[in-house]
């Protein structure tokens, strides 16, 4: 990597941003900061304000109050834009062009782009360069979109649902490429509905709901907001009987297995084993990011 003069301004920052569309208050005082070499996952239910936040950072829309900055500059400035790569859900890519032509065109906007061979290797485009974009499968098009996002050697990358429609192998390959970019110092803002994707890639997670950041921290910190344990087993005990025990919050049965959500595991497991000597397939796991996310957003709904 080239040595950069230390720059105190983070790659992306929203400061006390408000944005309304008529009566809809899409963002209500949002602060967000993404540092160099970091991956921030922005999570939220439909309509939470994620696209609006990204739109402001890309300079596609203007804030009603507060500021959006890229590298300390207004997002529309060319110097800021030339350091940014973008993979949005609405791609707007000319589908009569061949993949190689698309890459050449996009590379020409940047001062020091990657070679076509490097883009193809990083995005898994083997054998696709001479194909027309419009004739590719959805997953192949997604990989081309990723190649176009990274071809300018960006220091800041926006990835909006990057792995939607990719098979497991292609998803893992993309995750490897994203990790490589972050290790090289690129800052990445990721939105995803796959919480295991955020869990696998993010240093930090910001949960947005109703236009406000309702939680922010490392994956472990967000996970720790939910202390629950999930206990699974095959038992002769009924779901109703177990649901009445102290520390048990919820019990579900699929007809074969019970799934018990509890505040702590030990006491419930002891009680299960004491009550059913024939109990098998016991499994205890802590809540993941998905459960934490659901609990956080549900808590806001009922607040
Ligand atoms: N151009 C617009 N005109 C009017 N309302 C809009 C417009 N764009 C977004 N909204 C509204 O603003 C709110 C935030 O929308 P936004 O698209 O930012 O959410 P999101 O978190 O990206 O949702 P999704 O996960 O569904 O893409 C929603 O209530 C949405 O209906």
Automatic annotation (TrEMBL):
Coiled coil: none annotated. Residues 12-235 form the ABC transporter domain. GO terms for molecular function: ATP binding. Keywords: ATP-binding, Nucleotide-binding, Transport. The keyword Transmembrane helix does not apply. It comes from the Bacteria. InterPro entries: AAA+_ATPase, ABC_transporter-like_ATP-bd, ABC_transporter-like_CS, ABC_transporter_ATP-binding, P-loop_NTPase. It holds the Pfam family ABC_tran. Signal peptide: none annotated. The keyword ATP-binding applies. PANTHER family: ABC TRANSPORTER ATP-BINDING PROTEIN (PTHR42711:SF17). This is ABC transporter ATP-binding protein.
């Amino acid at each position: 990597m080239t040595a950069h003069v230390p720059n105190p301004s983070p790659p992306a920052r929203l400061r006390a941003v408000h944005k309304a569309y008529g009566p809809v208050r899409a963002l209500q005082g949002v602060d967000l900061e993404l540092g160099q070499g970091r991956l921030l996952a922005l999570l939220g239910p439909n309509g939470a304000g994620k696209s609006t936040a990204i739109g402001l950072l890309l300079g596609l829309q203007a804030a009603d109050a507060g500021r959006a900055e890229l590298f300390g500059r207004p997002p529309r400035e060319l110097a800021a834009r030339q350091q940014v790569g973008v993979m949005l859900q609405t791609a707007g890519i000319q589908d009569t062009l061949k993949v190689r032509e698309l890459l050449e065109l996009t590379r020409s906007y940047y001062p020091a782009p990657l070679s076509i061979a490097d883009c193809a290797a990083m995005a898994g485009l083997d054998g696709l360069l001479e194909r027309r974009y419009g004739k590719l499968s959805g997953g192949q098009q997604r990989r081309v979109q990723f190649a176009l996002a990274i071809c300018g050697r960006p220091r800041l990358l926006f990835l909006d649902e990057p792995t939607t429609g990719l098979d497991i192998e292609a998803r893992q390959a993309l995750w490897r490429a994203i990790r490589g970019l972050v290790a090289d110092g690129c800052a990445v803002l990721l939105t995803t509905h796959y919480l295991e994707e955020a869990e696998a890639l993010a240093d930090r997670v910001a949960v947005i709901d109703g236009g406000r950041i309702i939680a922010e921290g490392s994956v472990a910190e967000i996970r720790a907001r939910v202390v629950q344990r999930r206990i699974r087993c095959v038992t002769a005990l009924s779901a109703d009987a177990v649901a009445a025990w102290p520390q048990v919050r919820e019990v579900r049965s699929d007809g074969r297995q019970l799934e018990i959500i509890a505040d702590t595991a030990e006491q419930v497991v002891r009680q299960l084993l004491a009550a059913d000597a024939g109990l098998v397939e016991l499994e205890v796991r802590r809540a993941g990011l998905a459960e934490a996310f659901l609990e956080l957003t549900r808590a806001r709904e009922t607040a």
